[in-house]
Amino acid sequence: MQVDDVVQQLKTIYQRRGVEHYGEQVTQLSHAVSCAKLAHHDGQSDSLVIAAFLHDVGHLVDDLDGFQSRIHDRVGADYLQQLGFDEAVVEPIRQHAEAKRYLCHREQGYLDTLSEASLISLVFQGGIMTDAEADRFENLERFNECVTLRRYDDLGKAENYIFSEAEWVFEKIELYLNQ
């Protein structure tokens, strides 16, 4: 698939389904833009800014009667990999639910910061990690990016953006895929 086609496909998904809510008080599009802006403001790499924007795309590309929300991280990562995104984008997306499980285990007070929707999904995602799971997670090549993306996911829930405010991210995606 050509880069222009990939970008157009992503735009179409966010135009059609970005207005949906997923248990939070913010739309999918607003959450995506908010997370990307946080990453951009912090001077993160283009790959992490893009991952921050696309991390919940698995909610939008598959309708499995609610089951997909339990595995949306994997659904989204697999989808983006098929579109040609590299591991620098895909792996933090694939691991962002695991990063929540990790932070609940390793970081005192983190669990108390989670929204009600995030607490509910934590149960379906495997609950709080064990010591052994956390040790394995810390050995991931992109461990830091996975945890950083998770923090943006937790914070990016305050704004109500419209589609045109995502254009800069789509331009960044096009440039990134054309490298």
Automatic annotation (TrEMBL):
Gene source species: Neptunomonas concharum
Coiled-coil region list: none
Short name of one Pfam family: HD
NCBIfam families: HDIG
Superkingdom assignment: Bacteria
InterPro entries: HD/PDEase_dom (IPR003607), HD_domain (IPR006674), HDIG_dom (IPR006675), OP_Dioxygenase (IPR052567)
The protein's name: HDIG domain-containing protein
Domain (HD): residue spans on this chain: 32-101
CDD domains in the cross-refs: HDc
